[in-house]
Structures are given as C-alpha cells and as structure tokens.
Amino acid sequence: MKKYDVYGIGNALVDVEIEVSEQFLSDNKVEKGLMTLVEESRQQELLAAVNGISHSRSCGGSAANTLIAVSHLGGKGYYSCKVSSDESGEFYFQDLLSSGLSTNLNSERESGKTGHCMVFITPDADRTMNTFLGITATFSDSEISFEELEESQWLYIEGYLVTGPNSKAAAIKAREFAKSKGVKTSITLSDPGIVGFFKDGFKDMIGDGVDLLFCNEAEALEYTDKSTIADASVELKKIAKSFAITLGPKGAYLFDGENEFNISTNKVEAVDTNGAGDLFAGTFLFAINNGLDYQEAGEMACAASSTLVTQFGSRLKKEQLLKLKQLN
Fold first, then answer.
1. Is 271 a domain residue?
2. Rounded mean pLDDT of 97-118?
3. pTM value surpassing 0.70
4. Is residue 201's pLDDT more than 90?
5. 4 has which bridge partners?
6. Are the C-beta atoms of 121 and 17 separated by less than 8 Å?
7. I need a surface site. Which of 9, 56, 80, 167 has the fewest CB within 10 A?
C-alpha cells in the first residue's frame, strides 16, 4: 500500500484575498478574470491602492489548495514547493503542517522573498490574480522528493509551473519518473490566459499523455482551439486517459476513459469563486482514490465547490469537507 494518496508540485504563494470593485480594477489597470505575473514593486503599488480595505491571507497556490483538500478529507498528501526563510515563508510552512500535509520544506530555508498572490474578488464573484512569484520562480527538481513520489498513488502537477523553464523541466521530470514507477499522473491547466500564452510549454509538460487532466471550460477551449466542449473533448482524449472539465454553475463534464458524464451542481449565490477549481480537483482525486467512480466523485467535487463559492476564501474548513464526505 502506498504511503500517500497524492503528491503535488506547484508554486508556493501566500494568498492575499481582497474584495474590490470592478472600478478599482479599471482604475489600476488590472486585467479582470486572469492571473497576471507581476514584479514585487507592482504588488506594493496595488497594496498601497487598497490601503484600508480588509483582507485575509493563507498559504496557497493552486496545488497547495488541492492538497489541503485531500488532507482535510482524510487522505495523505505530500506537497513539494519552495518558500524562503522570511516571515511569509515561515507562515506558509506552519500552515502546511497544521493542514496535515507532509512537505519537502523544513526550518532551514534559503533567504529571499516568498511569493505572494493578490486575489481581487469583485461583486460578481470573479477572481483576478496578480502574482509575484518570488523564490518559487526558482523551483526545480531539487525540491522534488522522488522517494516520496514513488510512494504515492497520484502525482498532481500545477499548470502554473509552465511559466518558468526550471519549474517546467521539474514537472516533466516528475511526470516521467512517476510513469516509470507506476504512479498515476494528473495535471491542471490552471488559467486560460496562461494556457494561451504557454500552450507549447503545456504540450511539453503533458508529453505523451497523462492519466487525468483537470481544466475549466475556458481552458479546455483555449488549449484545443475549439469552440465547443464536445469538440474540445475529442482533442483532450488524445492527451489524457480521462479528464474533468468544470463548467461553473453548470457543473462538470467528465470522461473516465470509457464513459462520459454530465454532472449538475447545486444552484447557489456565488460570492467568491477563488479556489473552486482547486477544491474540485482535491475532492475528486480523494474520491476516486477511495473507491468512488467518476460520477460519484464528480458529484462530491461539485458539492464541495458549490459550497465554497458561497463564502469568501479559497478553502473550506475541515469540518465542512468532512460533512460533505458523509453526505456523499
């Protein structure tokens, strides 16, 4: 029996979530609905602009949110990432440990700046991210614990790693190693803007294919250059043995390698969609790794995500996830 359910790799970022108006985004020339990489000086400029607006912070980055969901549901997760020895890095390290995850991080870390992601939430519940990668921009295969990866059921690759040559190379090496050791592979496309700009990089990371691909509707269409999910799914079947496409309030479209499923979701009043895809992936991976089929896993993942978007923040509390687990 393997030691871990899921081994994840991704950019370690302290998430700072702030409620703003669409006018704020326009006034400060922030492109709505996308993740934009920025310099630290730009983040400081934006922080000054939101002075006085309440905000919260948590250890984040897409893969971290996914792995924390696995852990809170009762699974075992390992997260490889990179933070520095600054206060933000210590905050991140301690938050990972308190979430029940194993990690390559320890008390001895390099000096530098830990990455931050400013997450702007507008009244329509959309999330817009401006990210300063900091030291995670130097993430490489040195941060990967291959011995622990071999002891995992699944490898989960965060698509944002495509933005750096060293992190992309590390993702490719991890996928190839996992495949050679019989560890199932999964990847998330992460963001439609990133997909559009780094499409060739994604093709390199996916290589000869993965066992499971996660994406949302916009990412699926962008990656495949198609205009419908039906057409996009034909292309995705060429690179993934199975996939899960989230469709926002319409639920999800799944393919388990043989059958396709349309999963509906509860109708809710969304206030914050940040982290919904990450939570979907974590819940889904936990579910299929613990005996549920794709339809059951999709229903459980949609229930979790539809609950998350009704509140602020990129995670559900552990007790909320355990309650959903009991209901499914």
1. yes
2. 95
3. yes
4. yes
5. 152
6. yes
7. 56
Q: Is the pLDDT of residue 56 over 80?
A: no
Q: What are phi and psi of 256, to 5 degrees?
A: -100, 10
More confident residue, 266 or 244: 244
Asked, for residue 115, whether it belongs to a domain, the answer is no
Neighbours of 20 (CB within 10 A): 21
Kindly report the CATH number assigned to the domain that includes residue 209. Answer: 3.40.1190.20
User: How many angstroms separate the CA atoms of 280 and 254, rounded?
Assistant: 12
> What single-letter amino acid sits at 65?
N
Per-residue confidence (pLDDT) for residue 106, from 0 to 100: 92
- Pairing state of beta strands 152-158 and 35-37? unpaired
In contact, 96 and 64? CB cutoff 8 Å: yes
Q: Quick one: tokens of 257?
A: 């390698």
Identify the residue whose tokens are 């029996």: 1
- In SS3 terms, 151-214 reads as CEEEEEEEHHHHHCHHHHHHHHHHHHHHHHCCCEEEEECCCHHHHHHCHHHHHHHHCCCECEEE
Which backbone phi and psi does 145 adopt, to 5 degrees?
-95, 95
